[in-house]
Target: DUF1707 domain-containing protein
Amino acid sequence: MAESDSVGFGASPTSRTVRIGTAEREQAAASLGEHFAAGRLEVDEYDDRVARAYAAKTAADLAVLFSDLPSPVVPQSAQPAPARAPRSLIPVVVFAVLILAVVLAVTIHVVPFFVFPVLFFIFLRGRRGWAQQYRGPRRYSRM
Model:
């Protein structure tokens, strides 16, 4: 890193004798790891620089470690993820109706006949799938 690149490690270019803390040392080690992953450092050189980064006391000690490396690239902001479509409440309602039917059957010892149409719709919906999207009218090709 150049003179102005030491700013990321807790010191301005004018105050390079300011003591640094553990956070700055770990940030420098992580940055060295990125340079190592990019192939800019060899294993021995990386080990030496990381050891010197953890032993550094001032921002100037860290700036020396980055003097021959390019400045870090600031990542561009990622595009926000597309909004998910709201989930259907049909499975929740069907489940609640089935639980209600079971509770009624157990407590009053009568088979709730309203459950049969619900089961029929569950069967029909289960064959198509809960999350199937409408894809428009079907188009058949001529043979």
Q: What stands out?
A: Residues 94 and 108 are 21 Å apart (CA to CA). The chain is about 50% helix and 0% strand. The chain has two domains: 3-65, 90-128. The first helix runs from residue 22 to 37.
